[in-house]
Structures are given as structure tokens and as C-alpha cells.
Amino acid sequence: MLANKSITKSEFEPLRGTDTVATVRKRMKEEQVNALPVVDPTTQKLIGQINRDQLSRAENNQQVSDLQMDKAVKIFEGQHVFEGGRLMLQYELNLLPLVNKEATFLGVITKQQILEMISKMLNLEQKGSVLAIEIEPIDFSLSEIVQIIEAEGAKILGVAVESPDSNHQAFEVSVKLNLKDISRVTAALKRYGYSVITESESTVLENDLEHRADELLKYIDM
Predict the structure, then answer these.
(1) Same domain, 42 and 102
(2) Looking at the structure, do residues 170 and 136 belong to the same domain, yes or no?
(3) Number of domains comprising the chain
(4) Rounded-to-integer distance, Cα 214 and Cα 86, Å
(5) Of 10, 38, 39, 79, which sits with the fewest C-beta atoms within 10 Å of its C-beta?
(6) Verdict on whether the full-model pTM lies above 0.90
């Protein structure tokens, strides 16, 4: 799914240079964000962002234009929402401004919106079960896993891959299946030497998605 104006938060108002620090502090508290985009009111160009830590050194009566703005973290129209999720993780943001190739501000996309779009792409709302498989990098082959699963009559509704890191040296592949009983699939994977570390009905993924946002977005941190 690509980022475009139709998925932005339409009622959002960006900061202007004439906004006071007091206004910015109030908005950040009310909207529970650590950064807000700043737009030139004449050109509608995104010109920067104000972060919460910048406000600690400012007086309430100062204007945004008086502050040293940071370069805005943004997503371009036409980029995949996965890129939006990656940027939110990297910079610990709850919203991202969307701009076109001329840097014209089109709106913002929130973490909740990104989460909902990814959930839709991964079919998390469909009934079924989830398998988590641990695979050593030297043995990593999605095509073989798919063949084993489909040979047992299961359909794959979604796949997410968590890459190895310094704390965990193996790939972790989470597979959403259309079956409630996945014992045959689990047994087949184990016969081929795969380590199935969890297997469960997917209803847990349908509860409280907002509180699982960071965990879900980590799967797309490329």
C-alpha cells in the first residue's frame, strides 16, 4: 500500500512560524507526540519540525520562527507505508508528515494508521492461526517453508520476517494461516528440521492492536 493524501489525518494542522512555544507545548501534550511539522503558510512547503527537547530551552512567548528547527522526518507521496513504519521506529515518532516531490505538505499519517494498514496487508483480522518459526541464516528459505505448509492443505494469509540482530542470531518467521488446527503443519515443519517456537490461534493479534504497534512495526524495520 502506497502513501497518498487519501490516507492522511485530514483535520491535522501543522505548525506555523507565528505559533508560540506555549501553543506547541500544549499541542504536544494533547496530541501525545514528540515532534510536530512546520509549514510555510504562503507556499505550503514543509520547512522543518520542532521536537519536544527543543522546547525545554525556549520561553513560552517565543515563536516557532525564533527556534532552530530540525530537518523534518517525512514520507513522500507514493512511498510504501512500510517506509513510514521504518521511519517511525527509527526516530520514535507517532506521526509523519506526507509531502509530494516538491515538498508541499499534504497531511500527516499516524502510527495507528500505519498499524491498521499493515494489519490489513498481513490479514491479521482474518480468523486463523499463527506459526513462529526460527531459522538459522544459512538455512533461510521462504520458498521451502511455503511448499511444506501448502502441501498440508493450509493457505498462507500473511508472512512477516524478523531479521537476526546482535541479541538473536536467527531469523524469526511469523506465518498467518487460514486453519484453526495447525498441528499437521507444525509436525510437517518439524519433520523437515524447522524449529517451531510458537503456535497459536490468531485472536490474540486482534486484541488491543494499538498497544502492539511497536512490536508489529519491528517486523518491517528494514
Answers:
(1) yes
(2) yes
(3) 2
(4) 10
(5) 10
(6) no
